[in-house]
Inverse folding.
């Protein structure tokens, strides 16, 4: 009887692990498909992501899902109401140094721009730009510069708006972004001539927890405009 109970418990545990592994594989397949559809068919990507059951996902899959869903919503011009979703990706990828960290910083800046958290938006968009430049990622350099330009334009700081707008080779993208964000009314505030995120906002919560590597890199960054 005791052996039967032990065998039953082992079989149940194995079945649970097999079920979790199968579900994880199905989630990965859905996320891969959504990623493949993102550029050409963002609406289909969004519908696919919204159909994913996220209950019980591990941290890595949850972070990837959060980043992809944020991207899909942005590409479908859906305005966020808070930063809860993208923060999961930012926290998970922080310090990794990969493309996912760069993208999470950029989309966090986008979300903060949309919810009128201007001070924080400047921080993360500058970080995203610096990482994209270091990685020679022209797409996210351009996108970060474009959003920074729109952000400065919203503050009526036109000299810096022009400085950042020139970095985006696709001016029509900037025009579309400015039109989309025009309804956002934000308070104007002055920005230092040497606007470096780590130096301007040393007490920002992100920098209190950020890795030594990223802190050192951010400290080396200089923006003179």
């Amino acid at each position: 009887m005791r052996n039967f109970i032990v065998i039953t418990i082992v079989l149940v545990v194995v079945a649970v692990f097999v079920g979790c592994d199968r579900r994880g594989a199905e989630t990965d397949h859905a996320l891969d498909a959504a990623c493949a559809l993102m550029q050409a068919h963002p609406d289909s990507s969004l519908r696919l992501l919204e159909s994913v059951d996220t209950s019980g996902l591990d941290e890595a899959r949850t972070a990837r899902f959060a980043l992809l869903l944020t991207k899909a919503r942005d590409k479908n011009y859906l305005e966020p109401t808070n930063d809860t979703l993208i923060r999961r990706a930012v926290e998970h990828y922080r310090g990794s140094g990969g493309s996912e960290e760069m993208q999470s910083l950029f989309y966090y800046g986008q979300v903060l721009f949309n919810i009128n958290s201007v001070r924080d938006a400047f921080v993360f968009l500058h970080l995203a730009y610096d990482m994209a430049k270091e990685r020679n990622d022209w797409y996210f350099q351009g996108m970060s510069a474009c959003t920074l330009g729109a952000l400065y334009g919203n503050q009526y700081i036109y000299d810096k708006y022009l400085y950042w707008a020139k970095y985006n080779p696709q001016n029509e993208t900037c025009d579309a972004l400015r039109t989309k964000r025009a309804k956002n009314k934000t308070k104007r505030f002055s920005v230092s001539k040497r606007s470096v995120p780590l130096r301007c906002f040393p007490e920002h919560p992100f920098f209190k927890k950020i890795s030594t590597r990223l802190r050192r890199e951010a400290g080396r960054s200089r923006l003179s405009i």
Notes: Residues 2-37 form the longest helix (36 residues). The chain is about 70% helix and 0% strand. The chain has a mean pLDDT of 75.
